[in-house]
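On to our target:
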Amino acid sequence: MLHTNPRKRICTAVVFIAAIALTWGLSSAATKVVFVHGAEPKSLDNALHPAGSADLNVQTSLYDSLTYHRLDGKIEGRLATSWEFKNPTTLVFKLRKGVKFHDGTPFNAAAVKFNLDRTRSHKRARLRKWIAMIKEVNVIDDHTVEIGLKYPFAPILLNLGTPVAAIGSPTAIKKHGKNFRRNPVGTGPFIFEKWVAGEYIRFRANPNYWDGKPRIDVLEFRLVPEATTRVLQLRSGQAQLAMFLPPAQLGEVDKDPKLDLVKAPLFRVIFIGMSMLHKPFDNPIVRQAMNYAIDTKTIIEKVMLGVGRPIRGPFGPTVWGYDPEFEKMGYSYNPAKAKELLKKAGYPNGFTTEFWHPTGRYTADKVAAEAIQAQLAKVGVKARLRTGSWGLVAPSVRKGKAPIFLYGWGVSTGDPDMVMYNKFHSATHGRSGNYTRYKNPELEKVVDKARQVNDPVKRKAMYKKAAKMVIDNPPWVFFKQEVMLVGKSKKLKGVIVHPGERIYWRKAYLEK
């Protein structure tokens, strides 16, 4: 069985929220809650497009998964009531009875098989790799499903709790085909009602939700790209929850007596990737020099106003398996050492390169990139900034066009396998996740074995060993563990801000 160690640091990410009722077109007793985000979902089809935080934050209201990763680190059953490993590669789930999809279709084992098979085989399911270890799904009876694995996989219960493994209505998927992305049907606490592109997505409470009808009648996601506008809408009462607040306006929210400021630590790490496809980053000595050249601690504290925590390894304290020893293994700011290593690598006068970064995707990403550029210049590295929208920068990074780049990785399950395999294994080279095209055969042996070991003590030791290999031969400049800044009304209770960047509204309610 997978480890269930408590993750106390994660617990601060719980946010209990509620909203002043807005009555636009509703009865006086109805409750409407608005939350604002800077990006619009690409799709509401959880299997094919679950990647961005905007997608995740609406999909979690529409769908349920078999399992749920609680904030204390334990695994809770949702659509599954229990599970048992018959052997290391065979997992049997007992399913919840009496559950129906929003269109009235009964939830059963056949629906689980249909969804998992669809995701595993669909060429447009970019994150199907998260359940690629599944070999087959067999229906035992209406409420029992057996999942066979290709190999033992320790975090399987975590992976089955991610949105990519959530369960949609087979009837609706067959009916709408590719248009299911705009006509989603799940078993979740809210039912899709309307999507006005570029403006809002509206949901209504599911009166037949198996876990109790939500106490919010209408939930509305609103697209507000400008961060300062999100703050204004929050302060004026037009929105009850605002995500990804700008650091410069934290004081406004913090001092407002009607609002709470929440700094929710995430699983996500922010890093500076160095592509092996571009010289001189194919040289490990150059990559080590880059780690000494950048003062990540000062950038986070001064430029980014303390939003985030510096890390010196491939993942931070919120991820299970983290070891404080990473900080001793890692790098510290030392420009003299950086120059010494560059000279050793054959670049005594530094070199010129392109530094790609998004603007508006991560907290203070543009100003952080400018600070990094200035620090690199001090050791002779002339980095020309390639600034762009996420839609421009992300595809360029994935295709290998960027020599160095500022990027983030969500570590959605909170398990180190999500980092160590997806970001550093040659099996995921390119768009699959290893954007630096890093290759380290000895590391891969450890990572391949660690994902198949269920003993948490042994797994943790193996990931510590693997982390040291990545630190010693780095494909990244290790930057920070991300924190999501959330502003909320003091009257809104029961909402969970999950460190996997997912918002759960199923138990939200209005404080009278």
Notes: DSSP finds 15 helices and 21 strands in the chain. Residues 267-483 form a domain with the Dipeptide-binding Protein; domain 3 fold (CATH 3.10.105.10). The first strand starts at residue 32 and ends at 37.
